[in-house]
Specification:
Strand content of chain B: 5-15%
Strand content of chain A: 15-25%
Largest sheet of chain B: 8 strands, mixed
Helix content of chain B: 40-55%
Structural class of chain A: alpha/beta
Radius of gyration of chain A: 17 Å
Number of helices of chain B: 37
Number of strands of chain A: 15
Shape of chain A: globular
Number of helices of chain A: 6
Strand order of the largest sheet of chain A: 2-1-15
Order of helices and strands of chain A: EHHEEEHEEEHEEEHEEEHEE
Oligomer: heterodimer
Shape of chain B: globular
Number of strands of chain B: 21
Structural class of chain B: alpha+beta
Helix content of chain A: 10-25%
Distance between the termini of chain B: 41 Å
């Protein structure tokens, strides 16, 4: 019997979405960079392939919507924890409709769907760091206090602490979980500052794995029955120094995944999937 | 201005109360009637009073002792009298204070009133305190003898007179005055038996105890029997009925399974007795995680302090308690016995159902399924239909879907023993983020609503559901509270150079103290290996001495390892929502009990204890050094620092001062920054808060004073801090001479005010409250050393009641002594007592002495005023009161006594000085009801103090270099005092205190006058701030009103 807060990193399903061609030109981005659509799509295919074939997850692939250039970044529109899915209200107005397809997909998975209907609330999933024991919610350009409150209301078992995000798009633009009780964090000042806040706010002790590049700190951790600890992280081509750091994780099955193109539109590894642990019906 | 407002409201309220009092006019007859009334009232509102009345005799004895003279009553009294002098010496103020004064407020004022009545007649003539004492005694005697009136009360009184032992028996045996009962302890007034008893105990001490011990048991029983006719249990809630000397009281304890555990205890038993009984009944060894909670008058849940008398803690509340988990073990698997885990489970189930422990749907279901498994065993598909579960409650709101889920999960627990199911329940529950978190409503420095969560790991700050900050115990250097503010001092971070303080605004003083106590207890329990040794009161120390006295978790764990008994059998009570028994056995169920009684669930959580005393300022020895460093740093960095930082620095500086001087408890309000950004505005806000506090205080005062009001006096003190860091200017404004009685208020320095107002005010209660107002606690282990610094003070519990009493009588006499000592603490109270009942004449004479006394004392504080002036003139003026009222600068005399307020009215029997530190206005109403007017005239003084600005160390042991007083008269009487003293550091500090006294009749618009006075004062001295507003009212009651 799975108890409360057990099985961190254990996932059975993943929801992803294809890249629309409008991404190259219209996707929101903090820096003006040209995106090679084809390369990006190839990257994404590899990414999905890893989830599906290498890790054996059941992957639900949502079709792209040309009117929603950022729709590939599904993480922002839903926060799933246990059997409950919170459909967010993304901070960027242009992305609000991305929730529709996600909602349908999650309903089909028989999750308890909770809507963020408050019009004053905004929340991007990219600002939500779930550690297995608690949530940290970055208060950023995309996420506000109200959105965090609603999240806290939905996931009552967990402490929900807020962390100001001054630089970067999202909280997870410079950090992520690299294992149970292990936070991967970038070296930038804002990243370190955020880590400090998180450590202060938490009743739990976290180890940290510091990587030279902030964006490289965004990784995907899973604990799969058949594979053990799995970590999807940046490739040596992108961030050679950071990639070396991950090699210290001897217990992890390390899978470098390229994210060169999507990162140009502020897409990190975690952004491209919503991971779900769906227990088999008894 | 805010303060003004507060005063106005209070004033108005008071009059109303006054009306009540008028009813009781004549001496003897009135007394009786009053008693009866009091009894009734008490019965209705405050059960306790009745019991108190029983104690009254004891009080009388005390009075006699104090008064020395004419006690005819009981032989015991005679005994007491000789002893009395020592007694008074013992605790200073309280001793001096007439017994009746102390307890009158809350409980029936009968005693005092009576005394007052007598005086009135004799009034003008008898000025001597002693006489009063005699009168009172007589009055009491009359009461006892004459009327059938109060019924039990009368009897009790009589009995009491004889059997003091009885009263004391219970309590004494167990308790003994250990702490400060003396100050807090009741006076002679019949209504307040307990206090009286306490005092008497203290005084008579060993002798009485012995007697009691001998006689006690038997007598008690007898007494108990007599009252019982009503029905043993019924008594519990109405102590009044017990009026006779019965010393046993029925306590009802709501257990975690919802059952009621009746337990008879001696009225004066300490909390630990009841604890013991409960643990014994439960067969519980790992008891340190648990506690007993009760609801105070404000319906706030408080923890019963085992080391203190139950009655003093619950005051007028019913003897209804709840057994709850007080410290939630972070890892329940480390508990040794299953029974302990079982009880913890029951508590958590309460927490869950009450919503205090929020859970997700899944968690509710999971925990519910374990609860079912533990209670019902394996799921039996044949026996257990789906609806078997609907009798159980798993969540605040539970759906069919949830019930289905619970059943589904229940099925998976097959084979699990109850103990295993409990263990699984706990393993999951302990992970919940709100597990063991004790929430308290508060506001941050910016007035934003937040919640303070105290738990095993530290202090959590929530805004709505979000955790916005967290202060782990190791990060917290000091925990303190002052008035309704709660402060924590944070250890500087790695990159930070300075300690910072964070302040929170609680709804009221009591709430602030509750949080403080809970923090002290949780820190000690979870973080320390051994509890800190109780602090010994040092001379001049202020604040609460409250400390957690139980075992720490480390100790209890160690003790648990020694448990060597077979796992005790215990019965798991059915927890069905509806009381049906599974087997048809009629069980009373927990659920209902839980739902009804248990609010207890919540009770357990908010344990604000009133029990403890506070420590206003504790100092770390270590801090001294740190502080110096800070100073230098401060200087260097000021330029770059934000205002916030500066404020922090100031705070640390002020703390430093405090630590050296002991005096001022807290730094300026402004210093308390919030963790959130503090803006310059913060300081303003803080001040505003301070004023708010004042209002609250005033509220209390009103409440306490309820009885009679004829004249009103407003005293405004302004304190200013000179621009120079070291220089402090205080402007106290004061008083109206109006009333016949003279009350001496000590001028308050900033320090004094902050620390306690008691000094000035007469009543013990005030002192206590004030003391209580602030408390400090240094969480660090190292800090423990600092413990000494923490000031201990008399108990708080009695405060309210005491205050009232004090007020009434306080007037003229004793002031002098108190003044001096005031700063130190309790002494002042004594002084106040003196004046109380006696006629006008006395006041004058008394006043003068008082003033004189005051001066010396004040000098340290900054009050150097001409004592002489006060004396005669004051009295005269007071008599004339009304005429002076509006425009009259009442008395030059008045001026001199900047700090002391003297009011004397010829006819006035009682004078009450009420100093209110903080209380909600709301409370006012409550109290008013109780008081019965025996006395014709009453004088009430209400003091509003603003949060003190700086900790310019008033209390500091500086050397007074110069002191000059300038007085001018106009509408108001204004006294300006310049005091310069040399501090240890070689710095000289000059404080200017300006005291403005407005005197007038009830006809006068005091509010307006006050507002005007403040306005003018501010115009003249923009830098000064109003630190204190004292409203003194005297009311004459119609003699007819007796019945």
């Amino acid at each position: 019997m799975a108890g409360v807060m057990t099985g961190f990193g254990n996932f059975t399903h993943a929801v992803v979405r294809a890249i629309p061609s409008s991404l190259a030109k219209e996707a929101l981005r903090m820096n003006v960079l040209d995106v090679d659509l084809v390369k990006a799509q190839r990257e994404h295919e590899v990414y999905v392939g890893v989830l599906k074939h290498k890790l054996g997850l059941q992957v639900i692939e949502l079709p792209a919507d040309e009117s929603l250039p950022d729709c590939v970044f599904v993480e922002d529109v839903a926060v799933v924890c246990g059997d409950t899915a919170l459909i967010t209200r993304p901070g960027a107005e242009s992305r609000r409709k991305e929730t529709e397809a996600m909602r349908r997909a999650l309903k089909e998975l028989d999750l308890n769907i909770v809507e963020m209907s408050d019009e004053n609330a905004t929340l991007d999933g990219g600002d939500v760091l779930f550690t297995g024991r608690e949530f940290f919610v970055g208060l950023s350009k995309r996420t506000n206090q109200k959105g965090a409150e609603i999240l806290a209301d939905v996931f009552k078992d967990y402490a929900v602490s807020t962390v100001p995000v001054t630089d970067g798009l999202h909280l997870k633009s410079f950090c992520s979980m690299g294992g149970p009780g292990l936070i991967v964090i970038g070296t930038s000042e804002p990243a370190q500052k955020a880590l400090k806040i998180m450590q202060q706010m938490s009743d739990h002790r976290y180890n940290k794995l510091t990587v030279p590049d902030d964006i490289a700190a965004n990784t995907i951790y899973m604990n799969l029955p058949s594979k053990g600890h799995v970590l999807l992280h940046c490739t040596p081509e992108e961030f050679p120094e950071s990639a070396k750091v991950f090699e210290k994780l001897k217990d992890h099955m390390l899978i470098p995944v390229s994210n060169m193109e999507k990162v140009k539109v502020d897409g990190a590894l975690t952004c491209c999937s919503v991971l779900i642990n769906k227990k088999p019906k008894v | 201005m805010t303060t003004e407002v507060g005063s106005e409201t209070e004033v108005r309220k008071e009059p109303e109360k006054a009306e009540e009092q008028p009813a009781a006019p004549e001496p003897a007859a009135t007394n009786q009637t009053d008693e009866a009334k009091a009894a009734e009232q008490s019965a209705n509102d405050h059960p306790a009073p009745a019991t108190e009345s029983a104690e009254a005799p004891a009080e009388a004895k005390e009075k006699q002792e104090e008064a020395q003279p004419a006690d005819n009553a009981t032989p015991q009294e005679g005994e007491d009298t000789p002893a009395s002098p020592p007694a008074s010496e013992k605790k200073g103020i309280s001793r001096f204070l007439p017994p009746w004064l102390k307890k009158q407020k809350s409980q029936s004022q009968v005693g005092p009133k009576e005394s007052q009545a007598a005086p009135k007649e004799e009034a003008g003539v008898a000025s001597v305190k002693e006489e009063d004492g005699e009168k009172e005694e007589q009055a009491e005697a009359e009461q006892t003898s004459s009327p059938t009136a109060a019924q039990p009360q009368v009897e009790e009184e009589k009995i009491n007179g004889e059997p003091k032992p009885e009263q004391k028996e219970e309590v004494k045996s167990e308790e003994k005055e250990e702490e400060n009962h003396s100050t807090g302890s009741a006076d002679t007034q019949p209504a307040k038996e307990e206090k009286a008893a306490e005092e008497s105990q203290e005084k008579s001490a060993a002798e009485e105890e012995n007697k009691e011990a001998e006689e006690g048991g038997e007598e008690k029983k007898d007494e108990e029997e007599s009252p019982k006719p009503e029905g043993g249990h019924s008594f519990i809630k109405s102590p009044l009925k017990l009026t006779k000397k019965v010393k046993m009281v029925m306590c009802h304890v709501t257990m975690l399974d919802g059952s009621q555990f009746p337990c008879e205890v001696e009225k004066r038993a300490k909390g630990q007795y009841l604890f013991f009984k409960v643990y014994e009944a439960l067969n519980l060894l790992e008891k340190d995680y648990f506690g007993l909670s009760y609801k105070d008058n404000a319906d706030q849940t408080c923890w019963l302090d085992p080391t203190k008398e139950i009655k003093r803690q619950i005051r007028n509340a019913t003897w209804q308690f709840a057994f709850n988990v007080k410290f939630y073990p972070p890892d329940p698997s480390q508990l040794t016995e299953d029974i302990t885990r079982y009880l913890l489970c029951l508590q958590l189930r309460q927490d869950i159902v009450s919503g205090r422990l929020p859970c997700s749907f899944v968690t509710h279901s999971l925990l519910g399924s374990y609860a079912l498994q533990a209670e019902l065993g394996d799921h039996d598909s044949g026996e257990h239909r789906l609806d078997y579960i609907s009798d159980f409650q798993f969540a605040p709101s539970q759906t069919k879907e949830m019930e289905e889920k619970v059943v589904e999960l229940h099925k998976t627990h097959r084979g699990m023993t109850p103990a295993q199911a409990d263990a699984q329940f706990l393993e999951n529950a302990k992970k919940l983020s709100m597990y063991g978190v004790d929430l308290h409503h508060a506001k941050d420095s910016e007035g934003v609503d937040i919640m303070l969560g105290v738990c095993a790991n530290g202090l959590l700050i929530y805004k709505d559901r979000l955790r916005i900050n967290r202060f782990a115990w190791p990060k917290i250097l000091k925990i303190s509270y002052k008035r309704s503010n709660f402060y924590i001092k944070i250890r500087p971070g790695e990159t930070e150079q300075f300690e910072s303080s964070v302040g929170f605004k609680l709804p009221n003083h009591r709430a602030a103290k509750r949080v403080w106590k809970v923090c002290v207890e949780n820190h000690t329990f979870f973080r320390l290996m051994t509890p800190e040794a109780p602090i010994k009161a040092k001379f001049l120390t202020l604040g609460s001495k409250f400390r957690y006295s139980g075992r720490t978790q480390a100790q209890t764990r160690q003790a648990s390892t020694l448990i060597d008994r077979p796992a005790p059998y215990f019965e798991r009570t059915s927890s069905k929502r509806i009381s049906r028994s599974l087997d048809g056995a009629p069980m009373i169920n927990v659920t209902e009990a839980q739902e009804s009684a248990p609010t207890s669930g919540e009770n357990g959580r908010e344990p604000g204890l009133e029990l403890s005393s506070d420590s206003k300022s504790g100092r770390l020895r270590v801090q001294g050094e740190n502080i110096y460093v800070r100073h230098s740093n401060l200087m260097l960095e000021d330029l770059d620092k934000t205002q916030e930082d500066v404020l922090k620095h100031q705070a640390s500086i002020s703390e430093l001062k405090r630590s050296f001087m002991e005096a001022t408890p807290e730094p300026r309000p402004s210093q308390w920054e919030k963790r959130l950004t503090a803006s310059p505005a913060t300081s303003l806000r803080l001040q505003a808060q301070g004023s708010a506090d004042d209002k609250q205080k005033s509220g209390e005062a009103a409440w306490q004073a309820a009885e009679v009001e004829i004249e009103e006096t407003v005293v405004v003190e302004e304190i200013r801090v000179a621009p120079k860091g070291s220089v402090t200017i205080t402007t106290p404004a004061v008083i109206t001479p109006v009333a016949v009685e003279s009350e001496v208020e000590k001028p308050k320095d900033e320090v004094m005010e902050e620390q306690k107002r008691p000094v000035s005010v007469s009543s013990d209660s005030e002192e206590e409250e004030e003391e209580e107002e602030a408390g400090e606690y240094h969480p660090q282990v190292t800090v423990s050393a600092s413990v000494d610094q923490i000031k201990e003070e008399p108990e708080e519990e009695g405060e309210e009641e005491e205050e009232q009493q004090v007020n009434e009588e306080s007037v003229a006499e004793p002031l002098p002594e108190p003044v001096v000592e005031v700063k130190a603490q309790p002494v002042p109270a004594v002084v106040e007592e003196n004046s109380a009942t006696e006629p006008q004449l006395a006041p004058v004479a008394e006043e003068s002495p008082e003033d004189i006394l005051v001066t010396p004392d004040e000098a340290p504080n900054g009050h150097a005023e001409s004592p002489e002036d006060h004396q005669g003139p004051v009295a005269l003026e007071e008599e004339e009161e009304e005429p002076r009222v509006n425009g009259d600068a009442s008395h030059s005399e008045t001026e001199r006594l900047p700090q002391v307020i003297c009011c004397s009215e010829p006819p006035v029997v009682k004078t009450e000085m009420v100093t209110i530190s903080d209380t909600f206005a709301a409370q006012k109403t409550e109290i008013a009801t109780k008081e019965v007017p025996i006395v014709h005239t009453e004088t009430k003084t209400i003091t509003y103090e603003a949060a003190q600005l700086d900790g310019s160390g008033d209390g500091e042991p500086g050397v007074l270099m110069t002191a000059q007083t300038i007085t001018s008269e106009s509408l108001c009487t204004t006294t300006t005092t310049h005091i310069t003293k040399t501090l240890k550091g070689g710095l000289s500090e000059t404080r200017i205190e300006k005291r403005i006294v407005i005197t007038g009749d009830s006809d006068i618009d005091h509010d307006q006058a006050l507002a005007q006075a403040i306005k003018e004062a501010k115009e003249q001295h923009p830098d000064m701030s109003v630190t204190r507003v004292v409203v003194h009212k005297e009311t004459e009651l119609a003699e007819e009103g007796e019945d």
